[in-house]
Design goal:
The protein has 550 residues and is α+β, with helices and mostly antiparallel strands. Helix content is 31%, strand content 20%.
């Protein structure tokens, strides 16, 4: 039996008798769901939301990916504790000199959860499946990552994927229509996991309905997800929890965890209370204000290395914001160090550009517009901006993101700093869903708070997403920047990319389409029962690597 948390021991003491302590302990075990499997091996994690689907090809959200990483694996994984690609189902790979083909040597002796053999034909089946999505499956709301990274489907001009061949069971060759240096890193995304061809066909994985804006889940995606990962799907109680069980024939290390329960608890305070009550073993996105108290009570706080960016977006649809001097002044008004110290988690790093320092293409020498109130005021005056100029400042409410754990507090600090240079902030708050709709689908906003958690180690996954094409969020048209990003993405090797991205980061720093504020370090919290957890900057956390105390 596992060691109980301090909170559980206090509950037992309150009961006053041995019988009372047994009843409380039994209640906690029941709430943990330990009666559904091996109690000593059950790991209960509080998710902030339920999965959108259990078919990762149709997912782009963190909670779906958190579950998918337990069930599925891709050709390429992530080096533990980093964002760098590493072998997974492919033991090695080699790209051609022209960047148009990649040969993968596959791991032998691997089976999908339904007994189907993992081999080169299965690899090609998955690539061909994505490429041949039809109807609603092609919509960005459904196949978001394939849309954005492979740039189209069968018959589309500019589609990156061409074909796949299987010369032998353990060798697959993927052909591209154009060079893409980020191809290998992109394959570490759960969206490109290998799935059982047998199960995909048997349970109609691509038979999704609904609308392009709101696709529905197939039977496969709700009841029969089938991968090669260390855990198999058991059940999904919609709105409540997802349960998984260790796969007995897993090719790799199985570890201490025999059963996984993802319990949906959307409120961060309720997640903390569940940890204190002993009904969960851990949770993500710990509020910075909770970390000290939790540690004092004996819980473990595990920060991730920053692989995020929090920025102050600038919408150039506002005429005054088209003047780079005004954008420079806004940047110089912000005391990033004060912002970090007052509102963001320990381990957060100040930002000078829109990629974390560990990402390839980071430029140590970009131009910065450091905190200087007097210089900021002078720039506004030079640009003809009157004292007291009103500027709409949009921010979200009732939401916590890895890059933005407490938007209301961040808004308050930045607003105060802007008022110090003579800007009158007009606050505009919206709930998260409405907020995103306004930022991405309307020009009717001013400056705003947003950010990003990187998916893998590639500059394009940050600045290409933000600034690679015109958008309603930023409201500018800069063909020079767009073309530079397109050229960098289409190079054949990472070595060729590096100087291009270093120049692009300098170009962005001078143009100031937004102000990079910080690289927040989100934290997880765990009970004493958890001896070790595989913390990853890109959330590549697979629970066969979790170690539990006896």
């Amino acid at each position: 039996m596992h060691t109980r948390t301090r909170r559980q021991r206090r509950l037992g003491a309150v009961a006053g008798t041995a019988l009372g302590a047994m009843l409380v302990t039994g209640c906690v075990a029941s709430e943990r769901g330990e009666d559904s499997g091996d109690a000593a091996g059950t790991f209960v994690f509080a998710a902030s939301a339920e999965p959108v689907t259990l078919d990762p090809a149709f997912a782009n959200d963190g909670e779906t990916f958190r579950v998918a990483r337990q069930i599925f694996e891709g050709l390429v994984g992530v080096e533990q504790g980093s964002a760098d690609p590493a072998p997974l189902l492919a033991e090695s790979w080699e790209g051609s000199d022209d960047g148009l083909s990649y040969t993968f040597e596959l791991k032998e002796g691997v089976t999908f959860h339904d007994g189907t053999e993992f081999n080169a034909e299965a690899v090609c089946y998955n690539f061909d499946r994505w490429h041949n999505f039809e109807g609603i499956a092609q919509s960005p709301s459904a196949s978001y990552y394939y849309n954005n990274l492979f740039k189209g489907f069968a018959g589309d001009e500019g589609a990156v994927y061409e074909s796949c061949e299987a010369p032998s069971d353990n060798e697959a060759i993927v052909h591209l229509t154009q060079p893409w240096a980020g191809f290998i890193a992109a394959l570490s995304l759960p969206s490109f996991s290998m799935q059982s061809p047998t199960a995909l066909q048997e349970y109609g994985a691509d038979d999704i309905g609904g609308t392009e804006e709101a696709p529905s889940i197939s039977t496969y995606g709700s009841e029969h997800p089938t991968g090669t990962g260390p855990f198999t799907f058991s059940s999904w109680d919609a709105g409540s929890q997802v349960e998984l069980t260790a796969y007995e024939d897993y090719w790799g290390e199985q570890g201490d965890v025999t059963d996984v329960i993802f319990r949906v608890i959307d409120d961060p305070n309720a997640r903390r209370q569940a940890l204190e009550a002993g009904t969960i073993d851990g949770y993500d996105l710990v509020s910075p204000s909770d970390t000290v108290a939790l540690e004092e009570d004996g819980f473990q706080i595990m920060p991730r290395d920053p692989f995020t960016i929090l920025y102050l977006g600038i919408n150039q649809a506002v005429p005054e914001l088209q003047d780079v001097r005004v954008r420079q002044a806004i940047s110089m008004a912000i005391d990033k160090e004060q912002l970090v110290n007052q509102t963001l988690p320990e381990g957060t790093e100040l930002a000078t550009q829109f990629i974390p320092p560990v990402v390839s293409g980071y430029n140590e020498d970009v131009t910065t517009y450091d905190y200087d109130v007097d210089a900021a005021k002078a720039l506004l005056a030079e640009a003809g901006i009157p004292e007291g100029w009103e500027l709409t400042f949009n921010y979200p409410t009732n939401v916590s993101r890895p890059y933005m754990p407490n938007p209301e507090e961040i808004f308050t600090v930045v607003s105060t700093q802007l008022s110090a240079i003579g800007i009158t902030v007009v606050p505009q708050a919206n709930e998260w869903g409405e907020y995103l709709d306004i930022m991405q689908g309307s020009a009717d906003h001013g400056i705003h708070l947003l950010g990003w958690t990187g998916d893998y180690n590639d500059t394009d996954n940050f600045v290409g997403v933000f600034f690679g094409q015109p958008s309603m969020e930023f409201g500018f048209d800069n063909p020079e920047l767009f073309n530079a990003l397109t050229e960098a993405r289409g190079t054949a090797t990472i070595e060729d990319q590096l100087p291009l991205y270093e120049d692009i980061n300098q170009m962005i720093a001078e143009y100031i389409p937004a102000v990079p504020l910080a690289h927040p370090a989100p934290s997880l919290a765990f009970s004493e029962r958890v001896a070790s957890y595989p913390v990853s900057p890109v959330n590549d956390e697979v629970y066969n690597l979790v170690e539990l105390n006896d």
